[in-house]
Amino acid sequence: MKPFVLLATRAEDLPADEEYALFLRYTGLAESDLRRVRLEAGPMPELRLDELSGIFVGGGPFNASDPAEKKSAVQQRVEAEFATLLDEVVARDYPFLGACYGIGTLGVHQGAVIDDRYREPISVVDVTTTDAGAADPLLEGLPRTFTAFVGHKEAVSVLPASATLLASSPTCPVQMFRVGANVYATQFHPELDVDGITTRIRVYAGHGYFAADELQLTLDAVRRAPVSHPSLMLRNFVERYAR
């Protein structure tokens, strides 16, 4: 099998390593079949798409809607690299699944409006699929409404004409969309379980996701309901595109 690749941007080793472990667990892939590239550590290597099965993008600290003058040199480099990669991915309708930060990268590339209008605190939300989402093979096996972990400072507020809306939540209208037949992005985190999001809550305390006195409230919020369905998307992606 040709390997998949996970493009990651987390600078902190603990959540970065745990993110990779979660993708391995829920895709069912071995380390040899899921290459990890930590983009915060260095330039994106050349990705020969014909030698891969597909691309995953994990979450991260960058916000696409930040003013240019507030973006670090690393963020500007990563954004430029994604723009070039997505030119080829979209043109070829190549298998791509971006989670959280991935929805910002794909959204910007396609001309979506991204702002803080629909930011969501770290929590569990109810996500409901559209009719197109219910019929999409990536969401096979998921109920029409399922719980998912979220936590983001920006979101897509206006989808471009090129995108098909697949899922929404009450506080964030664009939770998932597709471009073409094979290029996907989610605002929620399909890779996370409760232990994984607990790690991120503790590591990213003080990063503006919640107030200093809201740590326990946030830890409680991600336990308000069990989350089990979103990870099925990762296995569906692998089963559909492994080659």
From TrEMBL:
Domain Glutamine amidotransferase residues, every copy: 49-192
Alphabetical UniProt keywords: Glutamine amidotransferase, Ligase, Transferase
SUPFAM superfamilies, A to Z: Class I glutamine amidotransferase-like
GO cellular component, one term: cytosol
Xref: InterPro entries: ChyE-like, Class_I_gatase-like, GATASE
A single GO molecular function term of this UniProt record: GMP synthase (glutamine-hydrolyzing) activity
Top EC class of this enzyme: ligase
Stored Pfam families: GATase
EC number: 6.3.5.2
The protein's name in its UniProt record: Glutamine amidotransferase
